[in-house]
């Protein structure tokens, strides 16, 4: 712990907290930034390199995939996804608008007919 | 024939009844006085007792105990509900809180385990989750399971905008100190600038909960209610507060800057993000572990691809349940006698100020970053305003504001990056304040 003088007024303590707090917030987010800017790509490359060690032929293929990925932006993905979504889920809208009403005909059946119960003689 | 029978029957009945009535009249004479007196006494005592009972009942009703403060707060509750329904300002929060404000301000006689501040009452048990800071981490779990960090992973430098907007937290903290609040109270008020309801409730429940005893022997004030209400109401008012500041600080030319679309982010990166960010941020600020731990855990559930069921529950049913409980109990904690103080007014003033400062901090820092960026990489300074978390409202406001100056400039995805970084930033700031002040 830092040894602060005993009678320190709250305002100056506030400024200490202000400065250190802002410093810590910035430093932690800068750390995150740096990690994701440099650390993660390095990690992923190392992973790929490790994976590629065993299979040298496949290494070429993966590099090709990365090149094509560069042009594959979110917009393209969104367009493809929208097209798929429309195709799969909104086909219903293109249905034939002509309605055909089939007549559901009730065939006569005597199984519960009342008339058979009324004329029975005991 | 039937008619004759009926008439005969009725007549015979009348004849039989007659002696019964006659007997009554004769017996009455003997001890009528006693009975009458007794009846009188009984009547009197019955009437007076009933009257007393009604009087007592009336004393227990809200009509007898109502004060001006209750009425004011009930009207505020109704206004909240009205705003939520009519203008669609965060209805999921304002309507539970508004209903809670009405529930908490129904006047009652203390001592019957009704009020939220009486230990043992049902509302008090539900309020326990607020006082002990249980609800906010659960909400963060749901938020983590909802949030897509890919725009942040694609463009990590936008993370700094989330840090810049935390200037609002610390500036408000200083402002509260100058207005005479104690250090822990000022810390809790400052976090309103983080524009994050759960974080504000979490920190105020730890610092300004009315239980902690300060170094000079006084008990800290209970500011959870005012702080939570201020944080949530200003979050709902982001579409009103932010645009004028944006227009004031950012030139028309800058508002038209188009940003290149973010690169596609692989699933591996998305999976690494929650784990790495959890470890890095909580190593720096361990006090924010309850919030950040749950946030990144929720995100891991979402991105791992194997726990879709858990993520689905976390982001739908669970967060709904907790939001309901949190909203109602925070609303109910605004009992007039505790809520209507000059402190609450000051907190509301400081809250508005903190949102303004946070927005300005984000905008200025975005401008500053633009000085170092060149050509295609320049960022639209408007997205700095999304650094105050208030997910996803401030990002939407940025998007709408950019569309006003250029109808084909879609900034939503870019604005989401500082937006979620703001959540992380305010949680870290809360952790720092907590470790300094508790």
Automatic annotation (TrEMBL), chain A:
Highest taxon of source: Bacteria
Annotated transmembrane regions: 15-36
Major location (coarse): membrane
InterPro entries xrefs: Na_pump_deCOase
Pfam (any one): OAD_gamma
Compartment annotation: Cell membrane
Keyword vocabulary terms for this entry: Cell membrane, Membrane, Transmembrane, Transmembrane helix
Protein name according to UniProt: OadG family protein
Automatic annotation (TrEMBL), chain B:
Compartments where found: Cell membrane
Transmembrane segments: 63-85, 92-113, 125-146, 158-181, 227-250, 271-298, 318-338, 345-366, 416-437
Keywords: Cell membrane, Ion transport, Membrane, Sodium, Sodium transport, Translocase, Transmembrane, Transmembrane helix, Transport
Keyword Transport annotated: yes
The keyword Ion transport is assigned to this record: yes
Pfam families linked: OAD_beta
Broad class of where this protein is predominantly found: membrane
Membrane topology: Multi-pass membrane protein
PANTHER family recorded: OXALOACETATE DECARBOXYLASE BETA CHAIN 2
Protein name per its UniProtKB record: Sodium ion-translocating decarboxylase subunit beta
Native source species: Aureibaculum flavum
């Amino acid at each position: 712990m830092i040894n602060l003088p005993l009678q320190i007024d709250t305002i100056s303590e506030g400024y200490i907290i202000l400065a250190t707090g802002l410093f810590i917030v910035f430093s932690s987010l800068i750390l995150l930034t740096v990690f994701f800017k440099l650390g993660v790509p390095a990690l992923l490359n190392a992973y790929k390199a490790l994976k590629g060690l065993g299979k040298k032929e496949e290494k070429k293929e993966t590099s090709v995939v990365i090149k094509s990925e560069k042009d594959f932006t979110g917009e393209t993905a969104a367009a493809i996804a929208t097209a798929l979504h429309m195709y799969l889920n909104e086909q219903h809208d293109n249905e034939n608008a002509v309605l055909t009403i089939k007549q559901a005909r009730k065939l006569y059946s005597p199984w519960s007919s009342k008339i058979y119960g009324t004329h029975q003689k005991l | 024939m039937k008619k004759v029978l009926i008439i005969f029957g009725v007549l015979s009945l009348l004849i039989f009844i007659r002696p019964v009535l006659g007997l009554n009249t004769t017996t009455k004479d003997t001890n009528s006085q006693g009975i009458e007196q007794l009846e009188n006494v009984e009547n009197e005592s019955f009437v007076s007792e009933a009257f007393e009972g009604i009087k007592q009942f009336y004393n227990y009703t809200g009509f007898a105990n109502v004060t001006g403060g209750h009425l004011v707060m009930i009207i505020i509750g109704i206004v909240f509900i009205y705003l939520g329904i009519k203008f669609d300002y965060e209805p999921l929060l304002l309507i539970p809180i508004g209903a809670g404000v009405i529930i908490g301000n129904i006047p009652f006689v203390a001592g019957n385990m009704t009020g939220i501040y009486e230990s043992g009452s049902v509302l008090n048990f539900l309020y326990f989750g607020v006082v002990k800071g249980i609800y906010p981490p659960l909400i963060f779990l749901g938020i983590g399971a909802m949030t897509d960090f890919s725009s942040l992973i694609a463009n990590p430098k936008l993370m700094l905008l989330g840090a810049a907007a935390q200037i609002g937290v610390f500036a408000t903290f200083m402002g509260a100190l100058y207005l005479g609040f104690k250090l822990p109270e000022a810390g809790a008020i400052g976090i309103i600038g983080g524009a994050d309801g759960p974080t504000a409730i979490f920190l105020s429940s730890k610092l300004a909960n009315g239980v902690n005893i300060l170094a000079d022997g006084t008990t800290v004030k209970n500011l959870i209610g005012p702080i939570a209400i201020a944080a949530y109401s200003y979050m709902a008012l982001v579409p009103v507060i932010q645009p004028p500041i944006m227009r004031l600080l950012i030139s028309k030319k800058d508002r038209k800057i188009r940003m290149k679309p973010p690169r596609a982010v692989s699933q591996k990166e998305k999976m690494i993000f929650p784990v790495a960010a959890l470890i890095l941020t909580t190593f720096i600020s361990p006090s924010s572990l309850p919030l950040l731990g749950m946030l990144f855990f929720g995100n891991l559930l979402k991105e791992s691809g194997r726990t879709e069921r858990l993520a689905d529950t976390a982001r739908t049913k669970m967060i709904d349940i907790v939001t309901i409980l949190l909203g109602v109990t925070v609303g109910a904690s605004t009992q007039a006698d505790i809520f209507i103080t000059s402190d609450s007014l000051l907190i509301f003033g400081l809250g508005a100020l903190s949102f303004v400062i946070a927005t300005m901090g984000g905008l200025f820092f975005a401008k500053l970053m633009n000085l170092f960026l060149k050509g295609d990489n320049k960022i639209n300074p408007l997205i700095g305003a999304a650094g105050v978390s208030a997910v996803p409202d401030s990002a939407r406001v940025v998007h709408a504001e950019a569309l006003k100056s250029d109808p084909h400039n879609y900034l939503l995805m870019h604005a989401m990056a500082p937006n979620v970084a703001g959540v992380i930033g305010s949680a870290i700031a809360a952790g720092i304040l907590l470790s300094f002040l508790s």
